[in-house]
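As described in the Methods, two query proteins were run sequentially through the folding procedure within a single session, without resetting any intermediate state between them. The first query and its resulting structure tokens are shown here.
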Amino acid sequence: MDSLVKSNRDLIKLKNGYYKYTLNATYEPAGGLAGGDVPASFQFNLPPMNSMGFSDHYNQALVKIQSVEVFNRLGVNQVWGTATGDVRVLPATFNVNIPCPNNIRIGDYTLGTLATTHRIGQSGLHAPLKRSNGAAGFFTTTTNDGLSVAQQLGSREIGLYSQTYGRQAVGGVDTTQPSTAANTTTINNAVTTISASALQENVSYTFEDNSSIFETGLLCGNPCGTTIDCNIICPFETSQTPVGLHSPTLDQEDGNTTMIRLCLEVQVLPNPTSRD
């Protein structure tokens, strides 16, 4: 940055070439995951922000993904669903197809000892998504095991407890276990109960990078005034097909909706001249 700013006029000119796009999109499928209805991509038109955007003196830019959030408001314990109706409980990557030869995602997949597939992944911008608590908190319109709607709204998580199960002892032997010498311990003629629990959580998947664009921005073609495509993939899969959110206990339109919020930073750079 210092090399580009020699005066206040230079600073104004530089800041006039800094753009920050906040991009939001919602994809609501037609039904459950079995139909394979997941978002193939999200598309955005980036307008030129001012007269500088139309200039042919700024063909390149530093670009970085500042943050990403993938979520929905009705689902719980969201994982990933594929176009073939499969469930993926794997890390995922958010991709933006702005051409960038300096940033390449490379994958390797080995099956047994006989078949190995080496892949040169796609170039562009990539953000590894991290599972976190939901963007808007728990949302519901129904009561849940004695909890009212008002008691649930906005909660970080809701605990669920399974029915208790136990072992009935008859004659000092646990009849639910194999008849072995190790199973002859005398216990009371009663049911020993054990409770299992689980948490329902409104899950989101996020990425955040608050570093300076001059430190971590990638050199790309100027994206202002172009159309960009974004998608989500599980990089540990050989198919590399897009995925969307899926709620196992709410396998319908609301539970499988995929919402995204992407913050993209762009700093256009002047073309080199004969004086450089």
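Immediately afterward, the second query was submitted; its sequence and tokens are:
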Amino acid sequence: MISVPVILTFALALFLTLLFPIMLILILAWKKKISLLPLGFGFLSFLLSQVLTRIPLLQAFSTQEWYQNFAVLHPVVLGLLLAFTAGLFEETARLGGSALLGPRKPAFPGGPARPGYRTFEGALSFGLGHAFCEVILLAGLTHINNLIFCFLVSSGSSQLLAQLLPAGQLELVTAQLSAVRVPDILAGLLERLSAVLFHLFATSLVFLAAARRKWILYPVAILAHTVFNCVALLPLGIWPIELLLFALALLCGFLFRKSRSWFPNAETGGTGTS
């Protein structure tokens, strides 16, 4: 039986991972704190780097015998490779986005150059788009499914579900949801918050690499992404891992805020302070 506290926590998680990101984007856009173009590019960067490329590739590899054997024989190495590829794909997508968001040619001959979006505000917009795309697709939609399933099971609609699902699937999913505890859901929410803070920091690194032509920041972003993901490989419990990730995320958030002074004032020639 799925407990009421678990169902209520799933509802809270659904609000925080689906409705709240959309509300926050609308509020920030209305107050002109973010720009819609880099926000959209950030959203697309996660779609292209993960949903449309890396994840399908991993799914294809997972059906291969050599991959399955490697996963059994070298799980730690595989975990490191997965952490690295996540950083490689996502930071490369960010770099491509920053290239497209650079200064644009004048609208007409002799006109003023139009500044791009490789600024702190542009990084904020792009980073939120990337992070919230991940939150909504990986967490928000999952919580929708969980909540619908919980309601159907609790309302006595198990027979309907049994007809829709493959044989044995109803019992399996019900057992999985029944085993979920409220702290497990809260730990997942804390992880999503940590990921958002990290994505803002990583975006600032890549945008600074493009804005200041300091390209070493691109591999630094990949390395930081790899290290951040590798925390999940530590032989610790779920809460120690999430708290460690959150501590790192707070540092990332601090560095992101501090990066405002490192960006050029405008890409047409202004400089920030060091």
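The two ends are 58 Å apart (CA to CA). We note this only descriptively and draw no conclusion about the first query from it.
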